[in-house]
Write a sequence for this structure.
């Protein structure tokens, strides 16, 4: 949920000067609070005090990592304490308002001070949190927010692991926001902490191509010292800006300090249904009125769709079966660790969609809101994941904090049409059945109804969708299971590795500099794994391990299992997955990107592999050597793939290979490679 309230020009300019955000377009109640911070690597005595001198500290903007990681092939990263401080002056316009401070990510024990007073301690580096700072602010004077971070793992909360499969890095690595609202306002779902409520919660009781019933539950708080009249108006606006449905509640009296939830039903005729191939988004406009005065407005982006999982029928969206093709994603980038800006989050989703994936497992933690926003916009289905990996802690604190993380995860993602699954147990961990049952119950309480699907590797706790891996025998065990099944991981261990043997033996772990043969081997392994999956009539979908290379533990500092490398540059595997798209797919709404493709997986040198492999989603491919036709072929047979590879025997001759992709006899795509010249 984002709030928008247009301010007078002078007032907006004042805000911009005070918060260093002239370039910000979000001119309203959500104010990006990410600029103008001071940073210190290491601990500092009394750094929370307003009198503390931070002139020698480094000036930084969020997102920020605790240390620039100069070597992305190393597992060495800063582990310890760091501090952030920001001095700001709230303008007079804030007088009488409620002020909330939100951190989207702080790694991983965060102590937040305002003017020397400890306001909150947040445990867990992957979950967002919101603090009410109203009563601790001094309007019209300098205020200091100070944050002490410790990114050491703790047995008290997930992930807890001291030798993780993904590096923690550190810092305030996502954005921060100030939320400025009237004392009569829509609550923040994270701060309200109401199971299945708080904020704005949108569900869909019935959805067809002819009509959809959209149910909107809006919680309003009256934090005035006197009773206030209150009414809520909600409208659904289409992509053209036209209101297609609206509803207003009767005005009611809300006592001082009281909460009320207004439930409204809005009917949309002939709705545009959200689907990965057509990710149509509406805007839900919420307005809170007190008498004739509008006191709060919110905008929530929604997608109208209905989903279902069964064993025999797999996954269905809007009543039609879809076998989704996905990959796991870790968020780290070279040099900046996890401090990925919103544009980078969007780019990651776009790259996945461009290279053939329409599903992402957000392994193994709650990921950025902007990443899921991009999934909504670009049409990539998502599995939200509880923070954790091979944990060993069973303490009561760990269990309780994990359940809290489950609740936060569901509240954070519940209005996103792209999120279809919630992994409520820890990855590759021996969670007790009692924990799994409690986590599943908590998640269901947060999202009641038949549109919520929990998932996990635990087989006996009421979790709705079973998510085994290929290396753990999921292709075999799933056949006899009555629950819906998806393979949460495949490809990395499918060939050349035996579970429990040294990871360095994995044939599917290659970097681009390993060369043509290694990348072809990885692409072949991935293709064989996907073919096996598509031979399973009951499979809902799958997720390759992994979309991108990522940094990990000291024995294998760069895990090179990605279809694209850590810079998001494609290996041959990525081109294979791109060829699995339908020729008519659109990759980005409003653009012509996508469509037919062809790619020659060869550098065309005297040592290149033979036969030549070509990936394409076309009917046929014509291959030319130095403009002479070698042959026109159809895809190879004997696989379960939507678009098998093409294979050509071509005696080497220096020059240019060109592949033309044909559909109905017409050239629809072309690609060429030329023998490299002598290096100079």
């Amino acid at each position: 949920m984002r709030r928008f309230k247009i301010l007078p020009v002078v007032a907006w300019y004042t805000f911009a000067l005070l918060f260093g955000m002239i370039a910000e377009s979000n001119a309203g109640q959500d104010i990006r609070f990410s600029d103008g911070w001071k940073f210190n690597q290491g601990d500092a005595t009394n750094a929370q005090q307003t009198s503390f001198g931070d002139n020698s500290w480094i000036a930084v903007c969020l997102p920020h990592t605790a240390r620039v990681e100069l070597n992305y092939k190393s597992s060495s990263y800063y582990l310890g304490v760091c501090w952030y401080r920001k001095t700001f002056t709230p303008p007079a316009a804030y007088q009488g308002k409620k002020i909330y401070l939100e951190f989207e990510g702080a790694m991983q024990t965060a102590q937040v001070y305002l003017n020397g007073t400890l306001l909150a301690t947040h445990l867990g580096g992957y979950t967002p949190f919101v603090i009410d700072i109203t009563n601790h602010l001094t309007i019209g004077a300098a205020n200091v927010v100070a944050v002490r971070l410790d990114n050491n793992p703790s047995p008290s909360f997930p992930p807890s692991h001291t030798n993780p499969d993904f590096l923690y890095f550190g810092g305030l690595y996502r954005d921060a926001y100030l939320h400025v609202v009237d004392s009569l306002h829509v609550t923040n779902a994270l701060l309200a902490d109401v199971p299945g409520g708080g904020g704005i919660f949108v569900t869909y009781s019935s959805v067809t191509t002819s009509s959809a019933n959209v149910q909107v539950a809006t919680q309003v708080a009256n934090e005035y010292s006197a009773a206030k009249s209150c009414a809520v108006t909600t409208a659904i606006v289409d992509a053209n800006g036209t209101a297609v449905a609206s509803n207003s509640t009767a005005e009611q009296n809300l006592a001082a300090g009281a909460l009320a939830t207004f439930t409204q039903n809005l009917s949309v005729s002939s709705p545009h249904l959200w689907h990965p191939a057509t990710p149509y988004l509406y805007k839900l406009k919420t307005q809170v009125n007190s008498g004739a005065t509008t006191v709060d407005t919110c905008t929530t982006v929604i997608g109208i769709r209905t989903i279902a999982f069964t064993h025999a029928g797999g996954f269905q969206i809007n009543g039609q079966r879809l076998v989704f093709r996905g990959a796991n994603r870790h968020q780290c980038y070279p040099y900046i660790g996890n401090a990925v800006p919103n544009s980078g989050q969007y780019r990651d989703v776009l790259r996945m969609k461009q290279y053939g994936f329409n599903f992402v497992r957000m392994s193994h933690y709650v990921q950025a809101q902007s990443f899921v926003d991009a999934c909504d916009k670009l049409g990539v289905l998502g599995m939200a994941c509880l923070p954790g990996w091979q944990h060993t802690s069973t303490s009561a604190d760990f269990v309780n904090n994990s359940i809290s993380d489950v609740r936060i995860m569901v509240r954070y993602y519940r209005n996103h049409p792209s999120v279809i699954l919630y992994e409520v147990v820890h990855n590759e961990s021996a969670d007790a059945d009692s924990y799994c049952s409690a986590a599943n119950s908590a998640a269901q309480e947060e999202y009641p109804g038949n549109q919520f699907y929990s998932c996990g590797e635990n087989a006996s706790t009421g979790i709705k969708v079973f998510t085994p891996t290929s290396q753990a025998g999921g292709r075999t065990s799933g056949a006899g299971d009555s629950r819906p099944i998806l393979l949460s991981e495949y490809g990395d261990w499918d060939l050349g590795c035996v579970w429990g043997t040294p990871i360095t033996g994995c044939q599917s772990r290659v970097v681009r500099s390993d060369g043509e043969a290694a990348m072809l081997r990885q692409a072949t392994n991935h293709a064989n794994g996907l073919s096996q999956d598509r031979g399973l009539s009951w499979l809902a979908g799958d997720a390759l391990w992994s979309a991108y290379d990522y940094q990990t533990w000291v024995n294998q500092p760069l895990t090179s299992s990605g279809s694209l490398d850590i810079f998001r540059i494609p290996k041959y595997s990525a081109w294979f997955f791109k060829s699995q798209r339908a020729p008519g797919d659109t990759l980005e709404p409003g653009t012509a990107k996508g469509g037919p493709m062809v790619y020659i997986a060869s550098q065309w040198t005297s040592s290149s592999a033979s036969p030549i492999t070509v990936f394409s989603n076309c009917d046929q491919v014509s291959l030319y050597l130095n403009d002479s036709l070698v042959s026109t072929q159809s895809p190879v047979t004997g696989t379960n793939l939507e678009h098998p590879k093409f294979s050509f025997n071509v005696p080497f001759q220096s020059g240019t290979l060109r592949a033309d992709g044909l559909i109905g006899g017409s050239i629809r795509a072309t690609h060429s490679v030329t023998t490299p010249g002598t290096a100079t």
Notes: Confidence is low (pLDDT under 50) at residues 2-28, 498-503. The two ends are 56 Å apart (CA to CA). The chain has nine helices and 40 strands. The CA atoms of residues 107 and 598 lie 43 Å apart.
